[in-house]
């Protein structure tokens, strides 16, 4: 539907290499198809979405500044902060020495006094050097000071595996940060997510951990005119139903949303209608949306790239069991990364993270369509 | 080129067990010398290249000027004295209350170190910030947090400065710019550096032209070996932030002697290694501390960058009220007790005719009453209500606050479509 609308409207739309599949990703519920969208055929990469969000927020509020390694003269390790140094100067786009603990703490200290820092970690693996500040001096401060000192800080950077970067560069931190009260943890998928959630995070008066994905940076997604508006924001703590279905609920975040959508396409051909939920927010977790969906479909499959034990999927499964146990027709399925440090070899790495076939297989298992048991990782 | 001095380290028995071989006399401790070296005041006039080669100023034995030119006026003297007495009496009362069960958990007392807190903090303005460690009661009191609020916080009552949610180790006061209170040593240093960064940012980016707020970071000798300390020395000097790193070197990190833990025990030397002046001062003498503090705070306010000040001091009690304090040599404790900063300062005030015995006694009596009143107030205050458990986790739990229709903005159904205007 939506895809067809686009092709009719935008004859000159150039579909990016991922665009061939991406127009399917934008299936919207029937109600919104009746909305009067002006030519919403513009596409934007996640990288540009993040860059434009940062740019607009820095222009709107002089208290916002960016700090991290290579954010200035190098234009950003992944070019997310490209052009910002020239526009805003070195006082607001601060290149730091390699001192995660130091500059994360400096960010927190400046947030105590009302500035709005955006601290970039080159990857969230390096945030482990600064985790004391993210948790102890950022997340807990509003509580410890009984509301006197809030910390309007954003910690952002790529999270999770990339391609062949080895064990120390591939961990997903959604579960770790998602367990800490006092933090808000956001996981954008599409460009619209990236723009809306980053703007919301910067404007939020509390510490936000913003987990991006390196492999999504280059992916292009269509963005509506509303999303391009400089006051566009998405709410924190609300998941999005990317695709409606009635047979099984698949929850995913970040890159796995794309995989889940592709798996849903495959499942459709086999007669299983999957509802895909893009979590968008790990903390607060949108339990309401997930439970409403499970009560409709009666089956649940959670997908994540992180380690399985104590992961995001474990939390979702537990919350669904707590809230909607009577509605479940099958045991909840949980797909996560393999319980090993990430290997380097390409074939092993592929086995260490969920692939589309894994999602399809697990979905069929939940629907009692396949007889084979898959070995757990 | 007279400023590039090589300070010869004293022949200290660095590896000796301090119990068997205690430091002979206090004045030979870690390089405190009898001769006056040149002070920081000269650094202003030399070029920056030369400035980097200034090793340090060792202002440990500032010769007190003749009585016609005293270091403090009467008002200043009495203010500082009152602050030191408040610190001492308050901490003693904390010990009493702890053993009576009114206070609980980890309580770290500041007895003996009052000269550092009063010497530095009484020179600050309200907008200047103080960041401390878990030994933070007296820093909060010196900065102006009322004794009642601190005592209630320690009792865990809802009238405490953090409504009972912080406790002994997490004193925060937005009004008085006390930015904590951190249990992890070294954690406060980057936060303090950030507060100093804000001061510079406000002046340069937000164009608040007269923003000259400085930040003081207090921490101990153990912290001076921690990675975050060095990261912040580097960045503070690199960006010339208005911060003063105050090391309260009381020689002991719980039971670990500073000499056993540190390759080079002279902490002030770490300043010049990063490009800022390093100063060593006798932290048992409040006037010497005050002189050094004036210079360092002045430097920071003028935009000349950070300073590292090492104060040689001592804690008369154990690390915390749960510490049996068996490892420290009683002789060492006796020696430092003889240098009690309050007794020294009292003597100075009386000898230089700045105050009479009666006036000082009146101050002590007044402080006794203040502290007793704070205990009564804390006792009578209510414990936090059950609903307070879940409060204050977020400043804005629902995000985006309340919209014009009085409901939470994110409950607006249009929000999920990503089209709501904020």
Give me the secondary-structure topology.
The complex is a heterodimer of chains A (377) and B (422).
Chain A: H1 2-9, H2 19-25, H3 30-33, E1 42-45, H4 46-60, E2 64-68, H5 84-88, E3 93-95, H6 100-112, E4 116-120, H7 131-139, H8 141-144, E5 154-158, H9 174-178, E6 184-186, H10 191-203, E7 208-212, E8 220-223, H11 225-228, E9 240-243, E10 248-252, H12 255-269, E11 274-278, E12 281-283, H13 287-297, E13 300-303, H14 312-324, E14 333-335, H15 346-352, H16 356-366
Parallel strand pairs in A: 2-3, 2-4, 4-5, 5-7, 6-7, 10-11, 10-13, 13-14
Antiparallel strand pairs in A: 1-8, 6-12, 9-11
Chain B: H1 48-53, E1 57-58, H2 74-99, H3 114-121, E2 129-131, H4 137-143, H5 147-155, E3 172-173, E4 178-179, H6 188-204, E5 215-220, H7 227-238, E6 243-249, E7 252-253, E8 256-257, H8 258-261, H9 270-273, E9 278-282, H10 286-301, E10 307-312, H11 330-337, H12 341-351, H13 357-380
Parallel strand pairs in B: 1-9, 2-5, 5-6, 6-10, 9-10
Antiparallel strand pairs in B: 3-4, 7-8
Helix pairs in contact in B: 2-3, 2-4, 2-12, 2-13, 3-4, 3-10, 5-13, 6-7
Description:
The complex is a heterodimer of chains A (377) and B (422). Chain A has 377 residues and is α/β, with parallel strands linked by helices. Chain A is globular. The model of chain A is unreliable at 1-37 (pLDDT under 50). In chain A, strands 3-2-4-5-7-6-12 form a seven-stranded mixed beta sheet, sandwiched between helices. Chain A contains 16 helices and 14 strands. In chain A, strand 10, helix 12 and strand 11 form a beta-alpha-beta unit. By secondary structure, chain B is α/β, with parallel strands linked by helices. Chain B contains 13 helices and ten strands. Chain B has helices at 48-53, 74-99, 114-121, 137-143, 147-155, 188-204, 227-238, 258-261, 270-273, 286-301, 330-337, 341-351, 357-380; strands spanning 57-58, 129-131, 172-173, 178-179, 215-220, 243-249, 252-253, 256-257, 278-282, 307-312. In chain B, the strands form three sheets. In chain B, strands 1-9-10-6-5-2 form a six-stranded parallel beta sheet, sandwiched between helices. Chain B has a two-stranded antiparallel sheet with strand order 3-4. Chain B has a two-stranded antiparallel ribbon with strand order 7-8. In chain B, helix 5 crosses helix 13. Chains A and B meet through helix 6, helix 7, helix 8 and helix 10 of A and strand 3, helix 6 and helix 7 of B.
